[in-house]
Design goal:
Spore Coat Polysaccharide Biosynthesis Protein SpsA, Chain A; NTP_transferase_dom; Mannose-6P_isomerase_type2; globular; alpha/beta; ManC/GMP-like_b-helix; 2 domains; mannose-1-phosphate guanylyltransferase (GTP) activity
Length: about 350
């Protein structure tokens, strides 16, 4: 079985820590390891280093190699231009389809946390065995929702469809991306929905065939690249043709068009969290609602439900009567915001483009 970890995003919702030069997946937001390192290491030893592939931007290859020295260089697929997730998935599925067309592969993301690692790996291996037998199918791995999130995608779960080893699979009914508050509450209490993590197991050949059917522009461009007869020619064609890819999400390119009869869902509590934004990181790390989460030299008094991260060893942050706040201190930026206002951070950073503050993005 193969695994692909996508590690190419910038992550403006975790600004000012996450920047273009060093995105969130490479930063130490949890302990002394990056979420990329945690994502790769949690696959071991069930996956060998040769079975793990990393999809990232061309400018981040050295960071990937520094943080994951055990991953072979040829397993790092470097995108020379930013073209959203659809082209990135299409390219690597085409690449793997040439070499391991019918071997199960799991798609993962580099900025997530999973607390129940052994259960997570058991599900992966069970689902991999199911896909190896069925082949022309896709199995989504979802998280039982902990609350009515408006910031995540949701999957509607159908009836029980199969069982493989210790893992139950249900039929797939529908996607819903970022519902409004009322709808999210309905989903949460219905028990018929799970969070969509973007994790799925299939075979490279099947996913690539979906691009051929539903997204011909991505497929035809990928064909130009993977037709290469050597690694040197591959890199040359990648540089030449990848920029021709349309900018489109994987959901829009393929997933919204799949035959639901070939799709299944695993709905489990694997202790998953998306730490792509500060309030999500806090929720992932707190043991109880209202806990303070701190990093670095921080002293809080009479404070609650706040996250305070200090990356400046020369300075101490002292907070008194802080409530529901985000405070992030880096070498050149101090961010102070209400947790409820975290969505505005992305807009602020985007507004820096073309100004003297662009260097801070």
């Amino acid at each position: 079985m193969k695994a692909v970890i996508f590690a190419g995003g910038v992550g403006t919702r975790l600004w000012p820590l996450s920047r273009k030069k060093s995105p969130k997946q490479f930063e130490k937001v949890v302990g002394n390891k990056s979420t990329l390192q945690l994502a790769a290491e949690r696959l071991l030893p069930e996956f060998s280093a040769e079975d793990i592939f990393i999809s990232t931007g061309e400018q981040y290859v050295n960071m990937v190699q520094d943080q994951l020295p055990f991953i072979p260089r040829e397993n790092i697929i470097a995108e020379p231009a930013k073209r959203d997730v659809g082209p990135a998935v299409g390219l690597i599925m085409g690449y793997l389809a040439q070499r391991f067309p019918h071997e199960p592969v799991i798609i993962l993301w580099s900025d997530h946390l999973v607390k129940k690692i052994e259960l997570f790996k058991k599900i992966i291996m069970d689902v991999g065995a199911f896909v190896a037998k069925k082949e022309n199918c896709i199995v989504f791995i979802g998280q039982k929702p902990r609350f009515a999130s408006e910031n995540l995608g949701w999957i509607q779960i159908g009836s029980k469809a199969a069982r493989t080893a210790d893992t139950n699979l249900s039929s797939f009914a529908a996607f819903k991306y970022r519902p409004d508050a009322k709808t999210a509450e309905t989903f949460f209490h219905s028990k018929k929905y799970c969070w969509n993590l973007g994790y799925f197991v299939s075979t490279p050949q099947y996913i690539y065939s979906l691009f051929k059917k539903h997204s011909t522009e991505i497929y035809e461009t990928a064909e130009k690249i993977i037709a290469s007869k050597s690694s040197t020619e591959f890199k040359k064609n990648l540089k030449k043709h990848y920029k021709e890819m349309p900018e489109v999400s994987f959901d829009n390119a393929v997933l919204e068009k799949i035959d639901t009869k070939s799709a299944f869902v695993v709905d489990e509590d694997i202790g998953w969290s998306d730490v792509g934004a500060w309030e999500a990181l806090k929720e992932a790390l707190e043991h109880h609602r209202g806990d303070n989460i701190t990093k670095g030299r921080v002293l809080l008094e009479n404070s609650q439900d706040s996250l305070v991260y200090n990356y400046d060893d020369k300075k101490m942050i002292v907070g008194v009567e802080l409530d529901d706040l985000l405070v992030v201190n880096t070498e050149d930026v101090l961010l102070v915001a209400r947790k409820s206002a975290v969505q505005q951070i992305k807009k602020i950073v985007e507004g820096f483009q073309g100004t003297e503050n662009e260097k801070l993005t």
